[in-house]
């Protein structure tokens, strides 16, 4: 069996996927236009396009291009990065619950960034470094704890859940020990939100997405073989240990950068890859489709968070928790039905 035979698809399937791609792109564009148009000051769609092309009133251009466009761009990019991170971990753990939210990596990245905030810095570089360091430390700890008996199966999930609970307690203690202003800032940021996110994050987020996406595209054939089983992948020239470490590092960095920018936004990494897999009907993990699904999910969730109780704007993470909780209950109930 060759790599090409794993990724090749029949013509009819390819045609169906092209239709899904076009439909998904239209939904994404529709959500982006809604995000640019809706708000306390509703702006007609023609005026939105005029502002995007540098025409129209200066006030309208400020609202559309200066305030709302960075949020829409960053929302789509962060959703895509979370989905790619989740897809990587679900492949290397061979478990649909192998999400960084559940494995404790999100909690570790949050702890790292929280320590930076309590230490008095909110700069882009410091928050990113803290989140990446915390995420990698958490991932290393989880894999050390399960190293003897392998990283697959439910053992990794249980260890991840335990680490998430432990780090949650640590994070609460850090917030309680901080002064009121810092604790309030950390609590708002810790809910996971695109409220207040600004354009300074665009170069870092888009750069990380581009580099991470390129690395995943290079690794995708090997990851497709890895999903067939470690022994078979090894016989076809894949080095499983090196592949797992590379995928883990890329996944943690993608995740940590999003947490530094917007706080921990739960369940997108868990749900997007599995939704993409079902919609695209893919055998190997569909990384590009996962990224598209994550972008759509997060833009949709952010639109709900911003407009559901307007003028009050909810943290985006609250909406993703609601959607993700329903998805998780549906997935677990489906697994129980299949076991009967």
Automatic annotation (TrEMBL):
It is found in: Cell membrane. The chain crosses the membrane at residues 19-39, 72-90, 102-120, 126-147, 156-174, 204-225, 245-272, 312-332. The keyword Protein biosynthesis does not apply. Keywords: Cell membrane, Membrane, Transmembrane, Transmembrane helix, Transport. Pfam families: FecCD (PF01032). It is a multi-pass membrane protein. The keyword Secreted does not apply. Its main location: membrane. It comes from the Bacteria. Belongs to the binding-protein-dependent transport system permease family. FecCD subfamily. This is Iron chelate uptake ABC transporter family permease subunit. It comes from Microbacterium croceum.
């Amino acid at each position: 069996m060759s790599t090409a035979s794993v990724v090749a698809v029949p013509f009819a399937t390819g045609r169906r996927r092209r239709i899904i791609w076009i439909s998904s792109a239209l939904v994404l564009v529709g959500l982006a236009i809604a995000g640019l148009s809706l708000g306390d000051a509703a702006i007609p769609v023609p005026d939105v396009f005029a502002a995007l092309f540098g025409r129209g009133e200066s006030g309208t251009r400020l609202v559309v291009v200066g305030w709302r466009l960075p949020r829409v761009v960053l929302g789509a990019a962060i959703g895509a990065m979370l989905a790619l991170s989740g897809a990587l971990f679900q492949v290397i753990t061979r478990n649909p619950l192998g999400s960084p939210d559940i494995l404790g990596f999100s909690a570790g990245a949050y702890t790292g960034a929280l320590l930076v905030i309590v230490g008095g810095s909110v700069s882009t570089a410091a928050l990113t470094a803290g989140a990446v360091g915390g995420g990698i430390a958490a991932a290393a700890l989880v894999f050390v704890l399960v190293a003897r008996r392998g990283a697959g199966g439910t053992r990794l999930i249980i260890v991840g859940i335990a680490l998430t609970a432990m780090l949650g307690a640590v994070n609460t203690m850090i917030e309680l020990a901080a002064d009121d202003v810092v604790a309030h800032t950390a609590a708002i940021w810790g809910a996971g939100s695109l409220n207040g996110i600004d354009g300074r994050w665009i170069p870092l987020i888009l750069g990380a997405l581009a580099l991470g996406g390129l690395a995943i595209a290079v690794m995708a054939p090997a990851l497709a073989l890895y999903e067939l089983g470690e022994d078979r992948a090894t016989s076809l020239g894949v080095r499983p240990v090196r592949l797992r470490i590379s995928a883990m590092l890329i996944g943690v960095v993608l995740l940590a950068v999003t947490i530094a920018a917007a706080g921990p936004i739960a369940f997108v990494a868990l749900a997007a890859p599995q939704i993409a897999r079902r919609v695209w009907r893919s055998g190997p993990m569909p990384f590009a489709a996962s990224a598209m699904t994550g972008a759509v999910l997060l833009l949709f969730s952010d639109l709900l968070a911003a407009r559901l109780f307007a003028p009050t704007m909810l943290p985006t993470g609250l909406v993703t928790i609601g959607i993700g909780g329903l998805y998780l209950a549906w997935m677990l109930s489906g697994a129980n039905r299949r076991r009967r």
